[in-house]
Design a protein that fits this description.
Largest sheet: none
Order of helices and strands: HH
Radius of gyration: 18 Å
Number of helices: 2
Number of strands: 0
Distance between the termini: 24 Å
Helix content: over 70%
Strand content: under 5%
């Protein structure tokens, strides 16, 4: 596993933990009642998590593809 994969996976897990903690915290009074502000406030961390996990998958597939090409060229 490469450095990009490790960092993106760790960031994704970290954002997931922050999201779970954030769901258990109260919504600030300044944004209560405003639907879109509440959605972004509570689910922004989840979107960061998903983005990191998509990048992890991309980096993993890119590494596997390069490894297969190098094996193919060595034969």
């Amino acid at each position: 596993m490469g450095r990009k994969e490790i960092l993106s996976l760790a960031a994704g897990i970290g954002f997931l933990i922050i999201w779970v903690v954030d769901l258990n915290s109260p919504t600030p009074a300044s944004i209560q009642g405003n639907f879109w502000s509440e959605i972004f406030y509570h689910y922004g961390w989840l979107m960061y998590c998903v983005a990191c996990l998509f990048y992890y998958q991309y980096a993993k597939n890119d590494r596997v593809k390069k490894e297969e090409e190098s094996k193919k060229n060595n034969k």
